[in-house]
Amino acid sequence: MKPAMETAAEENTEQSQERKGCFECCIKCLGGVPYASLVATILCFSGVALFCGCGHMALAGTVAILEQHFSTSTSDHTLFSEVIQLMQYVIYGIASFFFLYGIILLAEGFYTTSTVKELHVEFKTSACGRCISAMFVFLTYVLGVAWLGVFGFSTMPVFMFYNIWSTCEVINSLQTNGTAAVEQICVDIRQYGIIPWNAFPGKICGSTLENICNTSEFYMSYLLYIVACAGAGATVIALLIYMMATTYNYAVLKFKSREDCCTKF
Fold it and tell me: What are the TM regions of this chain, as residue ranges (predicted)?
């Protein structure tokens, strides 16, 4: 009986050590995850998806509203339609680029964690690796500044649709109060520069304008522009996080490369 008890005790000890080893391995792996880069990647993918998807649909809805109500002549909005079509193709390119760039930055974040050092003792930073890391820092800063411009540009259609919507609310309140001067309240889309000044009708007033605001195309385009603007803002925040992560990684690789020191950022 004694040998059997000793054997069982030894097996329990081995199992507990094995479980302890698995637990320590999991903790070690989780400790090497670049959480900042991971959060930035998720936020970047979500922001770009919202901006590109909602922006594409909102642009198509804007063209439909313009053709149906504000510009009856095709020649008046031909240039605007071509610009919208070009912007839709650019959106496809932006989505593809940021999908690849986000994966590359996430991989670079994993590569510069302590996990690499622990799994590959012979790992050392090289001049080529530091140059690649510096290139990511520079490119991320450029993209961050560019996306600040994109975010500012995406607020313009939100501002335009908000002005139209607020004018419709004024017309609705005047009609509720029994005021007969609603036909004098107008919106001239030509003042935004998207169609020429000789476009007809260009200006919509009164109850006709209220009917436009009540259409599903207007309401949906307005909401889509708001979501696209929010997506652009989320992408800017993600790029700011990427800036901090890539800058920190590059600084550690540059100044502590002789110590074979890696980062967990």
Answer: 38-66, 86-111, 132-153, 222-245
- The amino acid at 257: S
171-220 pLDDT, tens digit each: 888 877 766 677 888 899 888 888 888 888 888 988 888 889 889 999 99
Summarize pLDDT for 75-117 with one digit per residue, the tens: 888 888 899 999 989 998 999 999 999 998 888 877 776 544 5
**Residue 165 φ/ψ, nearest 5 degrees:** -65, -40
For the chain, what is the domain count?
1
- With H, G, I as helix, E, B as strand and everything else as coil, classify residue 71: strand
* Residue 173 domain-assigned (yes or no): yes
Query: Is 9 part of any domain?
Result: no
Residue 34 lies in a domain: no
In whole angstroms, give the CA distance from residue 174 to residue 172. 5
The C-alpha atoms of residue 251 and residue 253 are separated, in whole angstroms, by 6
Three-class secondary structure of residue 26 per DSSP: helix
d(CA 199, CA 263): 60
Q: How many CA atoms lie within 13 A of 240 on its CB side?
A: 7
| Backbone torsions φ then ψ of 193, nearest 5 degrees | 80, 10
